[in-house]
Structure formats: structure tokens, C-alpha cells
Design a protein that fits this description.
Blueprint lengths: L2 E3 L6 E3 L3 E2 L12 H13 L4 E5 L6 H10 L8 E6 L1 E3 L5 E4 L3 H15 L4 E6 L8 H14 L2 E7 L3 H10 L2 E7 L11 H8 L2 E5 L26 H4 L7
Parallel strand pairs: 3-4, 4-5, 5-8, 8-9, 9-10, 10-11
Antiparallel strand pairs: 1-2, 6-7
Helix pairs in contact: 1-2, 3-4, 4-5, 5-6
Length: 240
């Protein structure tokens, strides 16, 4: 497996990472044993980067990863965690919370669920409109000093936010959608990240199955968010 360094200050990871979201949420029912087998197959293939979020299945995904990694060599294995999304018992979304006190609470639960002492890459899932990014990253910088997290990443933010965050503490990577059908970051964000030495961790590289040849409308159940996405409902000739 080819390896790449995340930005100028980040860890060296496998060029392909494993996104674990669908094992707990958003794409319909998932089989636990199959999910664990998938993690094992990824590790055996040389993948060293696992991506999750504390709100994927309301903690289920982190506990699943912990179970999958039991007995496995964790040397040179990186876990990336997103935080901040608020959800209710009906799996609805209530907004985002990136206040310093909230972040310390989120990381405490993630460390427990994952069964680790340190999270390799920690990132707010989205920009909290009520909290300056400087406060969020400042609190995370303190968590780096405390040893709770190793590196700080970002997710789904623009160039201005990236620059402001990076001025507080080095950002190792930006997690953002990037595919043949979603090339918006080429306008400005990609240039900013290259200038600052920040890596890009692309998700949705196959447009969530739209260009992979594996997704069909009849396979999308009620629990699959793609059934409500305009991208999957619009005629193929419509710009995406």
C-alpha cells in the first residue's frame, strides 16, 4: 500500500483510508460481522487510516472500531475522529457544538469508546456558527499538549476558516468531498491547502456510489440518506 504524509506536520498514512460511517449510519442497515470483517480486510491490505465520527450511530461506530481492533497490532495505525454534531434519539440532527467545554466532553467519550489513550487526528465535523474557529482550535491545541489528541484536522470549511485555524495551530488535513462530480475545491480551497502545507483527505471519491456502478434506486432503502439527496433524484443531465 502506498503511503503519504498528511500535510507538512501530520502522520504518514496509507494513500487509501477506510471510512467507517456506513457501518453504523446513513446508508441503511449494516451487518456487524461483515463490518468487522471489512475492517480486518482493510488492515490486512495495508490500510492504516480509519475514519469515524462520534455521532455515527451515536457512538456505535467508535465501539465497533474498538471491537474490530481487539487483538490487532495498533502500531502505525491512525484513527481520525470527527466531533460536534448533535443528535436526538430519533437520529435527527440538532446542530453543532464546538465550544471548548463541549470538545473536552466529546473527546472524553470518544477515548472511552475507542479504548485508546490518544486520538490520532481530531476534527470538528462542521463549522459552528456560534463559536469562532480560533476558540475551537485553541481548545484543541490544549488537548494536543495534554496528550489527548495528536493532530488537528478540519472538515467541510472554506479558505478563510482554514487560514484562521492554521494561524492558531498547524492543521494536518482538510476532510472534504472531492470526486469527478464534485470538484469545487479546485476553485480555491485546494490552492489554499497547498500553500499552507495542509493535506486533503477526500471523501465521496466515487460520488457515494453514483459513478461506481454499484448504486441503484431500488437498492436505496428508507434509512439510506441518498434516497432524499437531489444528486440521486435529479436526471443524469442535471449539473451536480
Amino acid at each position: 500500500m502506498e503511503k503519504r504524509k498528511l500535510g507538512t506536520t501530520g502522520p504518514t498514512v496509507s494513500a487509501i483510508g477506510l471510512g467507517c460511517m456506513g457501518m453504523s449510519d446513513f446508508y441503511g442497515p449494516a451487518d456487524r460481522s461483515e463490518s468487522i470483517a471489512t475492517v480486518h480486510a482493510a488492515l490486512d491490505a495495508g490500510i492504516t487510516l480509519l475514519d469515524t465520527g462520534d455521532f455515527y450511530g451515536m457512538g456505535h461506530n467508535e465501539m465497533l472500531i474498538r471491537e474490530a481492533l481487539a487483538g490487532r497490532n495498533r502500531d502505525n495505525l491512525q484513527i481520525s475522529v470527527k466531533f460536534g454534531a448533535l443528535r436526538d434519539p430519533n437520529k435527527g440532527f440538532l446542530g453543532y457544538d464546538s465550544r471548548p467545554a463541549a470538545i473536552r466532553n466529546f473527546v472524553a467519550y470518544s477515548l472511552q469508546r475507542l479504548g485508546v489513550d490518544t486520538i490520532d487526528i481530531y476534527r470538528p465535523a462542521r463549522l459552528d456558527p456560534d463559536v469562532p474557529i480560533e476558540e475551537t482550535v485553541g481548545a484543541m491545541a490544549d488537548m494536543v499538549k495534554a496528550g489527548w489528541i495528536r493532530h488537528i484536522g478540519l472538515s467541510e470549511v472554506g479558505s478563510d476558516t482554514i487560514r484562521r485555524a492554521h494561524a492558531v495551530h498547524p492543521i494536518v488535513d482538510l476532510q472534504i468531498e472531492y470526486s469527478l462530480l464534485a470538484r469545487g475545491i479546485e476553485n480555491d480551497i485546494l490552492k489554499t491547502c497547498r500553500e499552507l502545507g495542509i493535506g486533503i483527505t477526500a471523501y465521496g471519491v466515487l460520488a457515494r456510489g453514483l459513478i461506481s456502478g454499484h448504486w441503484t434506486k431500488d437498492r436505496s432503502g428508507a434509512q439510506d440518506f441518498r434516497s432524499l439527496s437531489p444528486r440521486f433524484r435529479a436526471p443524469i443531465s442535471t449539473p451536480i
